[in-house]
Amino acid sequence: QVLFIWLDGGMSQLESWDPKPNTPFGGPLRAIPTSVPGVHISETLPQSARVMHRLAVVRSVSTQDNSHSAGVDRIQRGDPKNRGVVYPYFGSAVAKLAGAGDSGLPPYVWVKPMNGGFIYKDAGFLGPRYGALALGDGRPPENLLRPPGLDAAADDERNALRRLADQRYAAGRRPEHTEANSYAFEMAAQLQRRVELFDLSRLPARDQQRYGTHDLGRHLLLARRLLEAGVTFVKVTSYGWDSHGDHFNQALSQHPKFDQPFAAVIEDLHDRGMLDDVLVIAMAEFGRTPRINGHVGRDHWPEAWSVCMAGRGIKRGVVAGATNATGTDVATQPHDIGALFHTWWRALGIDPETTQFRNAGQPLPIAHEEMTPVTDVLA
Fold it and tell me: 260 has which bridge partners?
């Protein structure tokens, strides 16, 4: 299983995993010690510092795109060589290669603020079936529950009629779209049987306090519930990390809203014996500039930033790679997103050297052929 935490807009590595206090670009915030001797992270992440012995940080990430529009797609697709096809996002790829398991639930669920729906575009050439079921604000899809006046027998008859209509519609049409339509109804039926997953009020008050009542806290608590229920890939998105102005006040306000539930979910997965089986990734499309701009902000910086991981296949309590003294560049071997995809696939027990996608018979690599994993963080 995978828990993929996406901090949309770009979390600052300098105010999180790779602080540079008392340097020209370090800013006013301090670095604090962690549970791993000699490893320090920003004072904005005190709870993460407490569980650092369960985490692995790569401080030598160096990617190419400094725009959101290009970076989001490239990072989540792994930037394989251009073969004239649209590659799947990581969640869709995992849903395809790891499967749905025996939970009966959708293999790829996206918990996000605002609107939900079925996001088929994430699947790329794999076809709409492997898209994401997006839960807007963590709520179940609209009209999920059967109306009070419709009994189970009548509902079964209606679905039987729908399946006959689907079969007629599918005749002579491309199967990937008709299969996705039927699949969406099947997943809705499974969610109807598990609607209690969405009712966080049933959980102990202590859980809600530990995660926080803000969006990311509620959504990561739901993510834990979905992982416990057997969902293969859960993506949780937090928006608003694009801090071009008043950066340091924003960091002091926003970073704790990540820190609190992130540490809580790491602890909970460990306490439940799940951390050995769940790969946890926390990242964005890039980091923030070392140089502080005229609006007391940090701009986009793909040249040198950090990614945090934990769980399945990952060493614990390690930091891989380093940036230079001022954080302007990677001082060790730089790692592009393709190297991280190699790392994640290997952590999941899937060999990117021997495993391929098939697109209309064409073999395609699941990770960039010219890149290799970050072996320092692999268990």
Answer: none
Residue with tokens 């993510």: 223
Residue the block writes with tokens 């999941």: 348
What is the C-alpha to C-alpha distance for residues 236 and 327, in angstroms, rounded to an integer? 28
Q: What's the pLDDT at 235?
A: 98
CB 90 within 8 A of CB 341: yes
Task: Tell me the C-alpha to C-alpha distance, in Å, between residue 243 and each of 17, 191, 326.
Answer: 17, 37, 20
Please write the tens of the pLDDT for every residue from 284-330: 999 999 999 999 999 999 999 999 999 999 999 999 999 999 999 99
Q: Pick from 210, 288, 234: which is nearest to 4 by CA? A: 234
Q: Is the pLDDT of residue 102 over 80?
A: yes
Residue 22: pLDDT band (50, 70, 90) is very high
**Closest listed residue to residue 328, CA positions, set 58, 31, 24, 5:** 24
Question: How far apart (Å, rounded) are the C-alpha atoms in residues 245 and 292?
Answer: 9
pLDDT of residue 198: 80
Q: Is 241 exposed, middle or buried (0-12, 13-18, 19+ CB in 10 A)?
A: buried
Pairing of strands 117-119, 132-136: antiparallel
Scan for tokens 């400094």, then name that residue: 66
Q: Which two tokens stand for residue 125?
A: 């050439």
The pLDDT of residue 173 = 78
pLDDT tens, 238-260?
Answer: 999 999 999 999 999 999 999 99
User: In whole angstroms, what is the distance from residue 192 CA to residue 105 CA?
Assistant: 10
DSSP conformation class of 328? S
Q: Residue 51 phi/psi, 5° resolution?
A: -110, 20
- Helices 215-229 & 247-271, crossing angle to 10 degrees? 20
Residue 88 has pLDDT above 80, yes or no: yes
Max intra-chain CA distance, the chain: 70
Contact 322, 59 (CB under 8 A): yes
| Residue 174: exposure state from Cβ atoms within 10 A (0-12, 13-18, ≥19) | exposed
The tokens 């985490």 sit on which residue?
Answer: 55
How high is the pLDDT of residue 243?
Answer: 96
